[in-house]
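Protein Entry — a single chain follows
Next Lines — sequence and tokenised fold
***
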Amino acid sequence: MSDTFAQGTSATDPLPKPEPAFPSQIKPNDTVFYFPGMSLRDYFAAAAITGLFNSGIIHEDAPRMAFAIADEMLKARKI
């Protein structure tokens, strides 16, 4: 794992623009309702923490580690 996972991300590191993970639109009676859903970062963090727990990493820093992994996943999408 990189140092980012071990140390976390810095508060000064720019985060990617939040993108919705499950956006949807409902159009009842010609009225449009838009639901942005959860952020893609939150979705990636949920997947990452599931992987951490399934691999036996149960630690008080697991949520921070999951968001660090999610941030790296978002950065990798930009490559």
